Amino acid sequence: MKGILNDKLDFCEDCGKLKKEVYKRKYYDNALLCPGCVSKRRRLDPRTHEKCSVCGKVTNVAARGYGGKPICLSCYHKDPFRKEKCSICGKIKHVGARDEAGKPICRNCYRKDPANHEKCSICGKVTHVVTRDESGKPICQRCYEKDPANHEKCSKCGKLAYVITRDNSGKPICLSCYQKDPKNHEKCSRCGRLAYVNARDSSGKPICNNCYRKDPANHEKCSRCGRVKQVATRDKSGKPICKNCYRKDPANHEKCSRCGKVTHVETRDKSGKPVCMRCYQKDPANHEKCSRCGKLAYVNARDSSGKPICRNCYRKFKNIEKQTVMVS
Question: What whole-number distance in Å separates Cα of residue 189 and Cα of residue 248?
């Protein structure tokens, strides 16, 4: 896949950006492509894909096992033999980096380390850099995911969104659809519900999003309201901001494409237009049959077996639970 270097400034045929390092790629019919788009094409090109020897998916090969057997990126990260105890948090996880003494550091601890942070050229926040633009300026994870140039049409919901994974045939899947898929659910080690795994404890046991948010160990004092809660984001100086304060901030508001209100954006439609929380909950496309009352409504919660519960039934359940606790 060697190409001919074009020394002059030229436009990349895929991303349309003016760059210096634009190559004529013989493998792709002498198309003028930047290194980033070449890597993207390689990941998506079925000619470079192989069947993973672990999960059986036909995808891009991240590594090879014994005898040269192909292993995809997902299986490579899950392999317990490739995991070590992080020297900072003590969790047994995939090694993201090593310190000067050669001690292992997991990906989360490496990202949290201020020594590895830079000021994002788009939002201005001092955080971990996930990529750089054509001029070498740093871009954080959130800004990279928001960029429409990195969006594709999800093969399940049809929305234009950032691709979190791909299916066996290489079709893109967004984060929301990936989290909803029962195949990606595990039994939470704390509440016992079948749900998407948000984190794992030091022994590798799964923890759902609700239990992770409730854990005081993951809470910090919000720099705006002063409450000790889970951190939703951070400001430019790295100070924590809770979910409520982030939602109330006018800087994060947009005009809803359905009701016209300027408010926090809960999601986006297939064309990328903003949709507020109220309109999202009213949309019949987001409704499921409640396992208790049988009504088609927005799912407020799920029981231990993953069955949907509407808002009214969830409130009744909470009141009954409180009464039984008080009586006992």
Answer: 33
CA distance 138 to 170: 29
* Nearest Cα residue to 246 out of 229, 269, 268: 229
The count of structural domains within the chain is 2
Q: Tell me the backbone φ, ψ of residue 158, rounded to 5 degrees.
A: 80, 5
- State yes or no: pLDDT of 133 exceeds 50: yes
Q: What's the whole-model pTM score? A: 0.63
Residue ranges making up the domain that contains 319? 284-327
- C-alpha 44/C-alpha 14 separation (Å) is 13
- List strand residue ranges (DSSP E) for 167-227, in order: 172-174, 185-187, 194-200, 206-208, 219-221
- Average pLDDT in the 2-28 region? 66
In this structure, what DSSP letter does residue 49 have? -
Long-range (24+ apart) CB contacts under 8 A made by 260-269 are 267/176, 268/159, 268/160, 268/161, 269/159
Q: Does 20 reside within a domain?
A: yes
CA distance 221 to 114: 19
Q: How many angstroms separate the CA atoms of 325 and 160, rounded?
A: 46
Is-contact 17 134, C-beta < 8 A?
yes
322: helix, strand or coil: helix
Tens digit of each residue's pLDDT (9 = 90 or more) over 209-227: 889 888 898 899 999 999 9
Residue 77 lies in a domain: no
Average model confidence (pLDDT) for the chain? 83
Cβ-contact 265, 275 below 8 angstroms? yes
Q: Is residue 121 part of a domain?
A: no
Helix (H, G, I), strand (E, B) or coil at 93: strand
Give the separation between CA 258 and CA 273, rounded to whole angstroms.
9
Instruction: Give the Cβ contact number of residue 30 at 10 Å.
Output: 12
Residue 147 included in any domain: no
